[in-house]
Structure formats: structure tokens, C-alpha cells
Amino acid sequence: MAWIALFFAGLLEIVWAVSMKQSEGFSRLTPTIITLVGMIASFWLLAVAMRTLPLGTAYTIWTGIGAVGAFVVGILFLGEQVSAMRIGAAVLIVCGLVLMKLSSS
Fold first, then answer.
1. Mean pLDDT, to the nearest integer, of 63-74?
2. Closest CA to 38 of 13, 59, 56
């Protein structure tokens, strides 16, 4: 259950990060509301996951899902730069997430 909560917390981190970008510095109401609701829900699910998962594992996985997810959304939907170095960095993050998951008890 904790891993499922953590996965959805990470997905919501992507949602709030993208909506924060779309809010244009919190000057647009709808994206600002989505950002705030997404943050609250993401933090709540992270807290649920941390009931049983170690802090370092839960936080690393949560931020990793959010970082790689936001990176992918930025490329696919926001026209952000694609380069071998950026993709390599994302691959390294994913490798770190896999190692963190494998090392958790």
C-alpha cells in the first residue's frame, strides 16, 4: 500500500509542477488552484507512504518520479529542449530510483 501511495504522490508532484509552470507565477487562477490542491494531495500521500517506508527511500522516490515526470512532460508538451546530456541525466535519476527501491527492505 505504501508503494502505491508513493507512486501516486509522485504523479501528483508532476501535476503540481506542471500546473505551477502554467500558473505564470501564480497569476492565473485555475493553474494556481490545481497547483495548491496537487501539492496538498501529493504531500498527504507522501506522508501516508512514510508511515512504513524509510524517509530517505520515500523522499528520493517521490522527488525522482516528479523530476523525471516533469522532464518528460516538458519535452512532450511544453516544447522544452531535448539533448543527449539531458536524457542521460534523466536515465541516471531513473537508475538511482531503481537502486533505491531494490535496496529498501
1. 96
2. 13
Q: Which residues of 35-73 are buried (b: 16+ CB within 10 A; e: fewer)?
A: beebbebbeebbebbbeebeeebbbbbbebbbbbbbbeb
Neighbours of 89 (CB within 10 A): 14
pTM for this structure?
0.89
pLDDT tens track for 23-67: 999 999 999 999 999 999 999 999 999 999 999 999 999 999 999
Structural domain boundaries in the chain:
2-103
- Cβ burial of 97 (10 Å; 0-12, 13-18, 19+) is buried
Query: In 1-105, where does DSSP find H-type helix?
Result: 2-22, 29-49, 55-78, 84-103
- Rounded to whole angstroms, the Cα distance separating 105 from 102 reads 8
Neighbours of 16 (CB within 10 A): 23
